[in-house]
Amino acid sequence: MPAFRYPTLVLQDAAGFFTAVPLEAVFTIPDQAPARHLELSLDGRVVASQTYGGPGTYTLRSTPQKPPGPVATVTLNLDRTFSVPGDHRELGVVVSAIGFRQ
Questions:
Q1: How far is the C-alpha of 102 from the C-alpha of 83, rounded, in Å?
Q2: 81-95: per-residue pLDDT in tens?
Q3: Which domains does the chain have, with CATH numbers?
Q4: How confident is the prediction along the chain (102 residues), in pLDDT tens digits per residue?
Q5: In sequence order, which residues have a C-beta less than 8 Å from that of residue 55 and are 6 or more positions away?
Q6: Which residues contact 15 (CB under 8 A, 6 or more apart)?
Q7: Which residues contact 81 (CB under 8 A, 6 or more apart)?
Q8: Nearest partner of 73 among 51, 42, 99, judged by Cα
Q9: 38: closest CA among 26, 24, 55, 50?
Q10: Is-contact 23 40, C-beta < 8 A?
């Protein structure tokens, strides 16, 4: 299981329209990033998992999912992070979109 949680989002469906559709994350693994294995979790349950061969832009997509209630917690987990000189943050991948998509 990946050791780092990056990022965690809360999706709210105040109108009650969540239906069973795939959950997906669109992200880029930068050249300097060591991350290769990513997992997409919905309310603490892994719904998609993939190992990638190297840097690039990818989409990790689950089978259709329906959150149990009006709020869904979505987390993108990865196996390794990195830091760059002068910046002590743990960096991973560049996320451009996470959400439920048809």
A1: 35
A2: 999 899 988 889 999
A3: 4-100 (2.60.120)
A4: 455 556 688 877 755 666 788 999 999 999 999 999 999 999 999 999 999 999 999 999 999 998 878 888 999 999 999 998 999 888 899 999 998 887
A5: 28, 29, 30, 31, 33
A6: none
A7: 4, 6, 34, 35, 90, 91, 92
A8: 42
A9: 50
A10: yes
